C-alpha cells in the first residue's frame, strides 16, 4: 500500500523568486505570493511544515488597483486604548510604505499560527527596482 510522503525541514529545497509588481493587479499578485510562501505550488506540500520559497517583490509602489479603491478603501489601526483608532486611506499607505501594505495583505492570507510568523519572514518587499538580494537573481 502506498503511503503519502510527509516533508521534513531537512528535505525542503527553497528557491528565491523575484516578482515584479509593476502594472499587476494587487489582489491577484498577493494571492500568488501567499501560495508561493506557503509552498502550495510544490507537490511535496505539507500543511504543518514550512515548505515555501523566498519571495522578493520589486516595484511595489507601481502596483495597480481596480475601481476607486485608492480613494475609498481605509485601513484601521487600534492600540488597545479608548479612542485610539486611526485610519489611513489606501493611497496614503501606498505612498508612505508599500512594504507594510504588502505584508499586511499577505499576512491575512496565511494561517493564524506560529508557522505563519516564520513564513511571513521570507517575504521581502521593495518599493523600487533595486534589491540587495542580487545573488538570488537568475541570469
Topology readout:
Blueprint: E1 16-20, H1 26-38, E2 54-58, H2 69-72, E3 74-77, E4 86-89, H3 90-96, H4 98-109, H5 114-119, E5 123-125
Parallel strand pairs: 1-2, 2-5
Antiparallel strand pairs: 3-4
Provide a brief overview of the structure:
With 139 residues, this protein is of the alpha/beta class. It contains 5 helices and 5 strands.
Please tell me about this protein's structure.
The chain has 139 residues and is of the alpha/beta class. It has a domain of 81 residues: Ribosomal protein L13 (Ribosomal Protein L13p, Chain: A, Alpha-Beta Complex). 30% of the residues lie in helices and 15% in strands. It contains 5 helices and 5 strands, in the order βαβαββαααβ. The strands form 2 sheets. The chain has a 3-stranded parallel sheet with strand order 1-2-5, with helices on one face. The longest helix is centred in the first third of the chain and has 13 residues. The chain is globular and about 60 Å long. The mean pLDDT is 92.
- As a whole number of angstroms, the C-alpha radius of gyration is 17 Å
User: Which outline best applies?
Assistant: globular
N-to-C SSE series?
EHEHEEHHHE
Report the strand count.
Answer: 5
CATH-defined architecture of the domain at 16-65 and 99-129: Alpha-Beta Complex
With strands numbered from the N-terminus, the spatial order across the biggest sheet is 1-2-5
Class computed from helices, strands and strand pairing: alpha/beta
Stretches with pLDDT under 50, minimum 5 residues: none
Highest-level CATH class of the domain at 16-65 and 99-129: Alpha Beta
Q: Mean of the pLDDT scores?
A: 92
Major β-sheet profile = 3 strands, parallel
Binned, the helix content reads 25-40%
Put simply, the count of helices is: 5
Oligomer state equals single chain
By CATH, the topology of the domain at 16-65 and 99-129 is: Ribosomal Protein L13p, Chain: A
End-to-end CA span: 43 Å
* Beta-strand percentage range: 15-25%
> Could you state the CATH homologous superfamily of the domain at 16-65 and 99-129?
Ribosomal protein L13
Amino acid at each position: 500500500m502506498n503511503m503519502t510522503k510527509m516533508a521534513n525541514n531537512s528535505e525542503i529545497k527553497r528557491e528565491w523568486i523575484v516578482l515584479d509588481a509593476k502594472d499587476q493587479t494587487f489582489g491577484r499578485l498577493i494571492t500568488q505570493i501567499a501560495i508561493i510562501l506557503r509552498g502550495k505550488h510544490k507537490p511535496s506540500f505539507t500543511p504543518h511544515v514550512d515548505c515555501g520559497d523566498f519571495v522578493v517583490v520589486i516595484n511595489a509602489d507601481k502596483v495597480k488597483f481596480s475601481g476607486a479603491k485608492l480613494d475609498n478603501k481605509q485601513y484601521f489601526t487600534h492600540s488597545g486604548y479608548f479612542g485610539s483608532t486611526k485610519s489611513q486611506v489606501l493611497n496614503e499607505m501606498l505612498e508612505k510604505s508599500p512594504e507594510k501594505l504588502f505584508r499586511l495583505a499577505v499576512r491575512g492570507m496565511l494561517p493564524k499560527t506560529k508557522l505563519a510568523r516564520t513564513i511571513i519572514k521570507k517575504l521581502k518587499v521593495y518599493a523600487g527596482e533595486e534589491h540587495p538580494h542580487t545573488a538570488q537573481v537568475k541570469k
